[in-house]
């Protein structure tokens, strides 16, 4: 297999935020995602603290908060940018190629984003619950 073939195969691997990972690791997706809410949604949803579900958070962030200026900032750590990209898409799985394309406008050196380095970051994540879509290698 040529290097180009290997990169092409990597480009098509897709990832998502595994909400089940949070439960398995005694973590709260709600707590991690809630800090990504815009001020309007924080205020509006403050009374729904106990009723806050991952689905409600994902919907609010996708439909409102992700459109706010600065939702993703070049100064954020790369994994935070990736987390917010998934939130902005309602946690739809994204391929490494799609992630790189979308991240390129938020990094100083887009050429530094490679499928290899991005895969390594996602696989080794222990905070955001990133997981590879099953059935892909």
Task: Describe what you observe in this structure.
It is a single chain. By secondary structure, the protein is mainly alpha-helical. The chain has one domain (3-132). It has eight helices and three strands, in the order αβαααααβααβ. It has helices spanning 3-11, 19-24, 29-34, 39-45, 54-63, 78-88, 96-103, 115-124; strands at residues 14-17, 94-95, 130-132. It has a three-stranded antiparallel sheet. The radius of gyration is 16 Å and the shape is globular. The mean pLDDT is 89.
The separation of the N and C termini measures: 15 Å
Class derived from helix and strand content: mainly alpha
Q: Order of strands side by side in the largest beta sheet?
A: 2-1-3
**Count the strands?**
3
Radius of gyration: 16 Å
Please report the number of helical segments: 8
- Give the averaged pLDDT, no decimals: 89
Largest sheet: 3 strands, antiparallel
List descriptors.
single chain, 137 residues
Outline:
The protein has 137 residues and is mainly α. The chain has helices at residues 3-11, 19-24, 29-34, 39-45, 54-63, 78-88, 96-103, 115-124; strands at 14-17, 94-95, 130-132.
Q: What layout of secondary structure does this protein have?
A:
Elements: H1 3-11, E1 14-17, H2 19-24, H3 29-34, H4 39-45, H5 54-63, H6 78-88, E2 94-95, H7 96-103, H8 115-124, E3 130-132
